């Protein structure tokens, strides 16, 4: 049965009371704002007690949908030379700052703390299912916002939808860096993404450093004020450096005379494959990593004598999750290895120290993406892991003299850690701040973003689904290079499908069902927490991102984007 050949619904047009034509949305869009004047009570802003408006009650629907617009400051289109943004109480915009440059300068900075009104509207999911329900709110990128019921003077929440960020240049992208920093910060503070206690204290310390640097005049705002500024020379130099690294590899010419040399990583580590009804612990093996495979031997001598390994693990396509506790000196790597026509097999590797962990974690991460130790990014991956761990180490004493009572912990730490640490929260955060006290503003924000990207749950968008022929609800995670079947209670990865094994995907708009064809199997499911169009857009969008070249001046192919995400011919 070919899902792509089924007829699409036509979108009827109706007139509103003002005589203007608007599209009355059919069910095959993911809009969460009604296009009719009925049922406008919307959400109560909480995920705890749903209102009686269907299963998607977490959507932030405005109360006055077609009411008379509220009076606002007179404004002109933003595309005009004197365009302004409407602003309300507490906004950073003023009558005098009406140019685009001033607008960018304001968007590059954030208020010290949001208004109580804005914070009260934020949703705080308490489970994986509630996180999945929040994704109903994405608007349809194939339609204009007015076609989806949005009217003038209404408020929208802007977020980066796809977790693939290109060409972040501190010199030119201060606005984009600040937007990413804010999105990362509120994901952590609202517990939309999990992290450990040490990581949360590190994030709080980085946020404190950002706030302190915001009080200091910056020498360079980062906004590009000249049209040239040797940008062409910078691009050429960057391209030459990238070419050199690609040709020489990460070791800058080491073993350059032997093009057959294959990098290898070896060491004694501990290994555990959990099984039901057994209490066996970690067992020590001699590990060798080569050609995307882990080989485990009883001893180093066995590996040298060409004996058969005790265990062999293919790392390509596996899920790699860190399990680190610096206080307890635990450095574990969780592997979820895909098996044919079965759920992932869980395995654990325990390292003895940070240095060992950084090398093996970097190797496993790259191998899961099909990249070996010869890849030029291996050394930078190791350095990134080391930096991430070093920022989590608390200092003996705070580096700045601040009264802990002057800092509101809820503005820096997630609620569960504020509750857990109580009066010690701010002191612990100030100790962690000693590691980042010298960072300038942009570097502090970039460190926050990089640390956010290092979290195990980063970049995974959740949906509650039901597979064809099954009654049980499942959790589906969509990431930049794969989709995952996950445990709906714990979030464990049960099965992984990579985009590079995908042959096609289709949506049956009549029965709201999605079919994804892979090399070895076909997956059919319906989405319960959002419209299937949302999942369709995420998959198509990530595939579009993967087709992007490294040319910084590449133009956006909008036609291809809408072809991959729109679901229409």
Automatic annotation (TrEMBL):
The keyword Ribonucleoprotein does not apply. It comes from the Eukaryota. SMART domains: B41, PH. Residues 262-369 form the PH domain. GO terms for cellular component: cell-substrate junction. GO terms for biological process: animal organ development; cell-matrix adhesion; integrin-mediated signaling pathway; system development. Residues 62-100 are annotated as: Disordered. Residues 73-83 have a biased composition (Polar residues). Gene3D superfamilies: 1.20.80.10, Pleckstrin-homology domain (PH domain)/Phosphotyrosine-binding domain (PTB). Transmembrane segments: none annotated. The keyword rRNA processing does not apply. One of its GO terms (molecular function) is integrin binding. Keywords: Cell adhesion. Belongs to the kindlin family. This is PH domain-containing protein. It comes from Anopheles maculatus.
């Amino acid at each position: 049965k070919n899902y792509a050949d089924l007829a699409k619904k036509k979108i009827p047009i109706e007139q509103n009371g003002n005589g203007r034509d608007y599209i009355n949305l059919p069910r095959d869009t993911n809009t969460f704002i009604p296009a009719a004047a009925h049922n406008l009570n919307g959400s109560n802003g909480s995920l705890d007690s749903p209102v009686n408006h269907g299963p998607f009650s977490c959507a932030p629907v405005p109360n006055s949908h077609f009411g008379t617009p509220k009076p606002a400051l007179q404004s002109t289109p933003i595309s005009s030379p004197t365009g302004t943004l409407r602003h309300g109480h507490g906004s950073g915009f003023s009558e005098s700052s009406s140019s685009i440059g001033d607008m960018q300068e304001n968007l590059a900075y954030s208020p010290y703390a949001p208004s109580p009104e804005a914070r009260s509207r934020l949703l705080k999911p308490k489970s994986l299912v509630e996180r999945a329900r929040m994704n109903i709110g994405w608007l349809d990128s194939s339609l204009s916002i007015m076609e989806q019921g949005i009217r003038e003077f209404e408020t929208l929440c802007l977020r980066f939808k796809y977790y693939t960020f290109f060409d972040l240049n501190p010199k030119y992208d201060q606005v984009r860096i600040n937007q990413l920093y804010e999105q990362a910060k509120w994901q952590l503070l609202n517990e939309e993404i999990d992290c450990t206690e040490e990581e949360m204290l590190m994030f709080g310390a980085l946020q404190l450093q950002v706030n302190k640097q915001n009080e200091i005049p910056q020498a360079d705002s980062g906004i590009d004020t000249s049209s040239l500024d040797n940008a062409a020379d910078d691009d050429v130099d960057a391209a030459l450096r990238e070419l050199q690294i690609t040709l020489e590899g990460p070791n800058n010419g080491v073993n350059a005379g032997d093009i057959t040399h294959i990098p290898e990583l070896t060491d004694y580590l501990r290994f555990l494959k959990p099984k039901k009804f057994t209490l066996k612990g970690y067992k020590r093996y001699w590990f060798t990593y080569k050609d995307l495979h882990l080989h485990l031997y009883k001893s180093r001598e066995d590996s040298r004598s060409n004996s058969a390994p005790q265990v062999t693990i293919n790392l390509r396509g596996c899920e790699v999750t860190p399990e680190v506790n610096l206080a307890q000196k635990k450095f574990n790597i969780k592997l979820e290895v895909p098996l044919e026509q079965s759920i992932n097999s869980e395995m654990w590797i325990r390292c003895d120290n940070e240095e060992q962990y950084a090398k093996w974690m970097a190797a496993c991460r790259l191998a899961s993406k099909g990249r070996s130790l010869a890849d030029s990014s291996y050394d930078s991956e190791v350095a990134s892991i080391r930096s991430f761990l070093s920022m989590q180490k608390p200092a003996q004493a705070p580096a700045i003299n601040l009264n802990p009572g002057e800092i509101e912990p809820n503005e820096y730490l997630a609620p569960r850690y504020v509750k857990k640490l109580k009066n010690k929260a701010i002191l612990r955060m100030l100790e962690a701040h000693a590691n980042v006290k010298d960072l300038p503003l942009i570097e502090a924000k970039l460190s926050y973003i990089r640390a956010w990207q290092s979290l195990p749950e980063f970049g995974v968008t959740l949906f509650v689904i039901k597979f064809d022929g099954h009654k049980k609800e499942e959790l589906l995670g969509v990431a930049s290079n794969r989709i995952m079947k996950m445990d709906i209670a714990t979030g464990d990865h049960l099965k992984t499908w990579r985009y590079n094994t995908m042959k096609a995907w289709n949506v049956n708009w009549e029965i709201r069902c999605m079919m994804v064809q892979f090399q070895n199997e076909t997956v059919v499911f319906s989405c319960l927490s959002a419209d299937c169009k949302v999942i369709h857009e995420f998959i198509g969008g990530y595939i579009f991102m993967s087709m992007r070249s490294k040319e910084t001046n590449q133009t956006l192919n909008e036609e291809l984007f809408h072809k991959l995400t729109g679901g229409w011919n």
